[in-house]
Write a structure and sequence with these properties.
heterodimer, A: alpha+beta, Heat Shock Protein 90, Helicase, Ruva Protein, domain 3, 9-stranded mixed β-sheet, 22 helices, B: alpha/beta, Arc Repressor Mutant, subunit A, Dna Topoisomerase Vi A Subunit, Chain: A, domain 2, 2 domains, 3-stranded antiparallel β-sheet, 14 helices, globular, binds adenosine-5'-diphosphate, binds magnesium ion
């Protein structure tokens, strides 16, 4: 019935049927189950279209895995597998059926919690506390499972192994949307974890597994595997699973992530020698690699983020409604607890004397019971909160990524020439502590003439949508990048080979909407973002200016070196002075006079130096290397690799084993920029570059003798 | 005959070459010492620019000042010139050792090659090479012939004089239609004056005019020597004129075009040039006279309008510059002459006199002016 029909039909209908009364309406009034509500309003949680549904499913599961691993103190090892269940669908299909599996080496889930976690919305461990974590609302994973159930009718499959040496629970469950409860359809204990099936998916997974790089029992002594079948769409590009994982890897350099995207490769294909060799390289690589259809985001650093403390809310950080609720909760828990105690126990930064002066201020005795506080008094109290002078909330509840890890993450994920990072100290907005970090990557293989790519993170989770609504985006456009030798159209993003990363860590990130896609634009937050960007920008500007100077000096040196040979020879002809001696002496002078040109050459006379910076928070990959991928294979490369056909994709492969690449010298702790992995990577690239750079700024000038 | 006759160079050739070689070796040895000592090698080259040119009023010639330009090796502006100077030093030393002489072009080719390990040439054109040789002359304080370099022959001579050139006796009365080609080195050890009857030298601007006078046997009828320098006279021509003037006391009388270029050529013959100021005392002839063509000649000779060539903007600019040269600025006659040129608004070539008659210039114009001593000095 169209709207028009409805209007026309109404008068007649209304006359014939008796109008509803309170009685009959009451018969229809009942609880709306949250899950029912969600089923109808799935767009609120990021399931608006098939492609986004796929992404959200992966995202919720990966977020949970990372949270769980970190909480349990385990270096995360995560596999994301997307299987195409309808490979023969027409190319025009808007959506298709996929099976998404996320496996982690986290603490696992005890048997009795499985139904609650996966079968109920709004059930979680993170909602009730003020602690930095990825998930917040406890909607995440069960919503994804429900979306799958609604679109395919298939239950979720969970394997979880909470104890080393104990069996794995294999459970399949479907959510009853009416009751918001799970219905278990399969429940068995099995031995294996992770599920063997996943290792044999393709020649790529098999090869990698054989090299110990994929879902080995040893790497997964405990853990959880979640499988959801859903109607979705897999497509690369902005807002894709690929991008999400790429960015997650950047913000979580302590995690190793293996991604098996859907492919139509037939499963009986045998892994050949080549595949095995490539898998070996991929298993050990320090940078993101793609071999045989499997993408490996390697671990960049070996330390977990520090453990975070849970904090009580700050009086200035709550709303009146929350205050009322807190009073109620307190009465429930403490039965007759006083307001005086309530203030001290349930808030941070409220001392005994502050608590009593607050009681005074609203005209109640400090022995008044929290349960007896009337709403008007609560409102007074709320006002007192705003006016009182309180220390800002503690900030040790935050776990910033840190300059060193930011650089490590950027270095392995973005192929640039220059990296700088900055981590601001904690600040407070509306009584909530937060901390801003930024990083920039410049040059190298990044596209030169496009607007900068801005990558945004909240509590290490990439934000993929609504960029222009995000505070961070505004901060980027309001920063004067021209000061740092970059182009920037008025009010726009800077243009150039540039990636800008912004991270906000907070116990409560203010999102603009439920789908958690953009950070709300608080002045305090934007200001910090701009300061962090300026810090990175300054370092970049310094670098760019130095690079310019280096180039000029390099050219000068070339000129001098060219003529020195002729001069030495003429001197020899005229005076009989030894030409070699004169040549060497002049060459030495030419070099020292153009020493700036050397600043990228390291102490081994080869590749890397943190100069021109001498500042922390910067990594420079010499140009020749950044562009030098795809050259000759590194000496350590297995023979099979050196012979691989030229048509194969080679550019993103690191051929040097991370163990072999570890620098022999201990890295100086004063320079967080000197990341082991970074060096390994640089060396790997350098080895490639040195194979092809002849006649460049080598150790010898033009030869005469 | 002569007033300030100069003594011929008496030093033996061998001795002279040894001195020059010594100078080159000293210059380059200093470069080597500095190089080995870790000091930046630099050459000091007296500057051949207007700013470093001094007008010696008493002698009536231009002289080079004391200004010196540094030519450091490690400077983008001078690195290549430094290298080129070294190459030419080597070439010259070799020439002297081999007892050979070479043309400027020959030296250019000798030193021209690609820089080892690059695609760059040590010299691209001769225009790059010639100034380096002039630099060496001033840096070493050695004359061109002492460096065993010569320029192409340019200019001709005919007239009532007999000379000896490298031992060959040459009677300049019997030189046919082409005349005796003026070599670039005309020093007394190469050319000696054997017998001279001529009473003056008539120097004309270019070969075509010289041909006219030679065909009309002007030098025979007027007992003189007839020369031309193919435009701005090269060093060989100027040096020979100076020797004829100083050693034989012959007045030098110039017939040049009535335009700023003609005035400039006269100025160079008389006072010397900026770029060769260091050679002025060997080249300049302060007593040289400018006979014509004069600005007044259009009227005085009754010339046709067709001979007028409009002054260009550049001509006007040049004329004013020349009027400001210190030796002209003090000279009322020259100020009037240049003013007349400018107020005429046109210039005239020597050939313009042909409109009167083919031999008007050689048979009427010059003889009459000589008789009247109607010239500028
Ligand atoms: N992979 C996992 N390993 C261990 N615990 C998990 C895992 N996934 C979810 N959980 C637990 O289940 C809870 C609910 O998860 P979820 O529904 O995504 O909500 P949220 O992440 O917002 O808390 C989490 O708080 C966590 O305690
Ligand atoms: Mg979650």
């Amino acid at each position: 019935m169209t709207a028009k029909d409805a209007v026309m039909a109404e008068p007649r209908k209304k006359k014939s049927a008796p109008r509803a009364d309170a009685e009959s309406m009451a018969a229809r009034q009942r609880d709306i189950s949250v899950s029912e509500f969600f089923a109808k309003n799935r767009h609120l949680l990021g399931f608006d279209n098939p492609r986004k549904a796929m992404l959200t499913t992966v995202k919720e599961a990966v977020d949970n895995s990372l949270d769980a691993c970190e909480e349990a103190g385990i270096l995360p090892e995560i596999a994301v597998i997307v299987e195409d269940l309808e490979p023969s669908r027409p190319a025009t299909a808007k959506s298709s059926r996929y099976r998404v599996t996320i496996v982690d080496n986290g603490p696992g889930i005890v048997r009795k919690q499985v139904e609650n976690i996966f079968g109920r919305l709004l059930y979680g461990s993170k909602f009730h506390r003020l602690k930095m974590s990825r998930g917040q609302q406890g909607i995440g994973i069960s919503a994804a499972g429900m979306y799958g159930l609604i679109t395919t009718g298939r239950p979720m499959t969970i394997f979880t192994k909470p104890k080393v040496g104990q069996p794995t629970h294999h459970i399949e469950l479907a959510m009853n949307t009416k009751t918001n409860r799970a219905e278990v359809t399969f429940d068995k204990e099995v031995k294996e974890f992770p599920p063997v099936r996943l290792r044999d998916l393709s020649s790529g997974t098999k090869a990698l597994a054989e090299q110990g790089g994929f879902l080995t029992a040893a790497e997964f002594p405990t853990g959880t595997s979640v499988t959801i079948e859903l109607d979705g769409k897999y497509q690369k590009g902005r807002g894709s699973v690929d991008e999400f994982l790429e960015l997650t890897a950047i913000a979580n350099p302590h995690a190793r992530i293996v991604f098996v995207p859907p492919s139509r490769v037939t499963e009986d294909e045998e892994p050949d020698v080549l595949a095995a060799a490539e898998a070996t390289a991929a298993a050990k690589a320090a940078v993101t690699t793609e071999t045989n259809g499997v993408i490996v985001f390697p671990r960049g650093v070996q330390e977990l983020p520090p453990e975070m403390r849970e904090i009580q809310p700050h009086p200035k950080g709550i709303e009146l409604g929350i205050l009322l609720q807190m009073l109620k909760d307190y009465e429930l828990a403490e039965k007759g607890g006083t307001l005086y105690n309530f203030l001290q126990e349930r808030f941070c930064r409220v001392s005994a004397s502050t608590a009593s002066s607050m009681c005074d201020a609203i005209g109640v005795s400090s022995r008044a019971k929290a349960g007896d506080i009337e709403p008007p008094q609560a409102e007074k109290l709320y006002k007192v909160f705003q006016e009182s002078k309180l220390a800002p909330p503690p900030t040790d509840c935050l776990a910033p990524i840190g300059v060193r890890q930011l650089l490590a993450g950027m270095l392995k994920g973005v192929r640039a020439e220059f990296y700088s990072a900055s981590s601001r100290s904690a600040e407070v907005y509306r009584g909530r502590p937060f901390q801003i970090e930024a990083a920039v990557a410049f040059g190298g293989e990044l596209a030169a003439d496009e607007p900068a790519r801005v990558i945004r993170f909240a509590n290490r989770v990439p934000l993929l949508f609504q960029q222009s609504a995000c505070s961070s985006f505004k901060a980027v456009t309001e920063t004067a990048w021209k000061n740092y030798n970059l182009q920037q159209p008025r009010g726009g993003l800077p243009v150039g080979p540039l990636v800008i990363m912004i991270h906000m860590a907070s116990v409560w990130v203010p999102f603009t909407s439920e789908s958690k896609e953009a950070i709300a634009d608080y002045d305090e937050i934007r200001k910090e973002m701009k300061l962090a960007l300026m810090e990175c920008g300054r370092k970049l500007g310094t670098y760019l200016r130095k690079r310019q100077k280096m180039r000029r000096e390099g050219e000068r040196r070339d000129v001098f070196e060219r003529y020195i040979g002729e001069i030495a020879k003429a001197i020899n002809d005229i005076t009989g002075e030894d030409a070699r001696k004169v040549y060497d002496a002049l060459l030495k002078q030419a070099r020292s006079r153009t020493a700036v040109a050397d600043q990228v050459l390291d102490e081994d006379g080869k590749v890397l130096k943190d100069e021109p910076m001498d500042e922390d928070g910067v990594i420079v990959v010499p140009e020749s290397m950044a562009a030098g991928a795809g050259g000759a294979a590194a000496p350590e490369a297995p023979a099979a690799e050196a012979e691989s056909p030229p048509g194969k994709r080679r550019s993103r492969r690191a051929t040097e084993g991370s163990a072999a690449a570890r620098p022999s010298k201990p890295s100086k702790p004063s320079k967080p920029a000197k990341v082991d992995a970074a060096r390994a990577e640089l060396r790997a690239r350098a080895a490639k570059a040195s194979g092809k750079s002849s006649g460049g700024k080598g150790t010898d000038g033009p030869r005469l003798f | 005959m002569a007033k300030g006759k100069r003594p011929a160079v008496t030093r033996s050739l061998k001795e002279r070459d040894a001195v020059t070689t010594r100078k080159i070796v000293d210059l380059v040895a200093l470069v080597a010492r500095n190089s080995l000592a870790g000091k930046e090698p630099r050459l000091e080259i007296p500057t051949r620019t207007k700013g470093n040119t001094i007008w010696n009023k008493k002698r009536g010639i231009l002289e080079m000042g004391d200004g010196v330009a540094e030519r450091p090796l490690f400077d983008l502006k001078t690195a290549k010139q430094f290298m080129q100077t070294m190459l030419h030093s080597s070439t010259i030393k070799d020439l002297i050792a081999a007892q050979k002489t070479s043309s400027l072009r020959g030296v250019f080719y000798k030193a021209k090659h690609t820089v080892a390990g690059t695609k760059e040439n040590t010299f691209d054109t001769q225009d790059e090479s010639d100034p380096i040789l002039e630099d060496l002359e001033v840096a070493l304080g050695a004359l061109r012939e002492e460096l065993h370099i010569f320029a192409e022959n340019r200019g001709s001579m005919v007239g009532n004089i007999t000379i000896v050139d490298k031992g060959d006796e040459i009677d300049c009365r019997r030189m046919g239609s082409g005349g005796y080609a003026l070599p670039s080195i005309v020093e007394p050890d190469v050319i000696q004056f054997k017998k001279c009857e001529a009473k003056f030298v008539l120097h004309v601007e270019k070969g075509t005019v010289w041909n006219r006078f030679n065909e009309d046997r002007f030098w025979e009828k007027n007992n003189c020597i007839l020369t031309h320098g193919a435009g701005q006279p090269p060093r060989g021509c100027r040096r020979l004129l100076q020797r004829l003037n100083q050693e034989l006391g012959l007045p030098i009388i110039c017939v040049l075009d009535n335009d700023p270029w003609g005035h400039y050529i006269y100025s160079v013959i008389k006072q010397g040039s900026i770029s060769l100021a260091f050679e002025s005392s060997r080249l300049a002839i302060p007593e040289a006279k400018f006979l014509g063509i004069r600005a007044k000649d259009f009227k005085e000779c009754g010339l046709d309008d067709a001979v007028k060539i409009d002054l260009t903007e550049n001509d006007v600019k040049r004329a004013k510059e020349i009027a400001a040269y210190p030796w002209f600025a003090q000279h009322r006659g020259w100020q009037r002459e240049i003013d007349a040129l400018l107020s005429n608004g046109f210039k005239m070539e020597v050939e313009s006199l042909i409109t009167k008659d083919i031999s008007y210039v050689s048979e009427t114009y010059v003889p009459e002016r000589l008789k009247r001593k109607d010239w500028l000095e």
